[in-house]
Design goal:
By secondary structure, the chain is mostly helical. Helices cover about 75% and strands about 0% of the residues. It has 2 domains: about 110 residues; about 120 residues, no CATH class.
């Protein structure tokens, strides 16, 4: 495990601390022709050599560096201003996944995908996936008949912001349920109600108030039920 921690530390330092913002801009501008891309990958390799300090691991460091270049290069070639936020998170997920796979191969474990045979981990992944877009779409369909007319609602907001907020709040509630911190859920509901209060008070729109209340209760309800089911069936 110490090796994996060292690899993650090297990645965090190389990707965030030792990568100037002007390098990021230049890479996005001229993509694979940017020398900053190659310097960035080289820095990652050097950092891993220094932090891991195991000459037997050198070939694997070369493999990780090459994978890092492929991931970053692919992102630069396919990224647009619209999908940039999504690509940022996808980029990090791919990097950490690559580090984990290489670590598993190096440690000669049974295999990377063997973790899917663990019932508790598989159940947790299923629960988390359920709380993302499946829950969002279910809530959206369920409350669609109560949705206020668009011309009566202030639409000056970020695109899909409400959906992402809902996903994050369900993750929080689910975490609080499985860790037995129910009191924090009440605080979260109160905090969300407080932020909505000023907006709804100014708007004086009863239908929108009911629409938001139904959506919030459904979102919290799905997260709570998912947490209880997870605890019930978790080994």
């Amino acid at each position: 495990m110490i090796l994996l921690i060292k690899l993650i530390l090297a990645h965090l330092i190389g990707d965030f601390l030792l990568q100037p913002y002007k390098w990021v801009i230049q890479k996005e501008k001229i993509k694979l022709r940017a020398w900053q891309l190659y310097a960035h990958c080289l820095i990652h390799g050097v950092l891993m050599v220094i932090i891991v300090w195991d000459w037997e691991f050198l070939p694997w460091i070369g493999l990780i560096t090459a994978i890092h270049f492929v991931i970053d290069g692919t992102k630069l070639l396919t990224q647009t201003e619209k999908n940039k936020p999504v690509y940022f998170f996808l980029d990090q997920v791919l990097h950490f996944t690559a580090l984990y796979i290489v670590w598993m191969l190096y440690m000669e474990e049974n295999g990377f995908f063997d973790f899917l045979m663990n019932e508790q981990i598989l159940l947790l992944i299923t629960a988390l996936v359920l709380l993302t877009y499946p829950a969002s779409i279910t809530i959206q369909v369920f409350i669609s008949k109560w949705s206020p007319k668009k011309d009566t609602v202030d639409t000056d907001s970020f695109k899909n912001a409400g959906q992402f907020i809902g996903i994050m709040e369900r993750f929080f509630v689910f975490t609080f349920v499985i860790t037995n911190h129910w009191e924090v859920i009440g605080f979260l509901i109160a905090a969300k109600s407080f932020f909505h209060f000023g907006y709804l008070k100014e708007l004086r729109e009863r239908k929108l108030t009911e629409h938001l209340l139904i959506g919030t209760m459904l979102s919290f309800g799905i997260a709570i039920i998912t947490g209880i089911v997870y605890l019930e069936f978790s080994p």
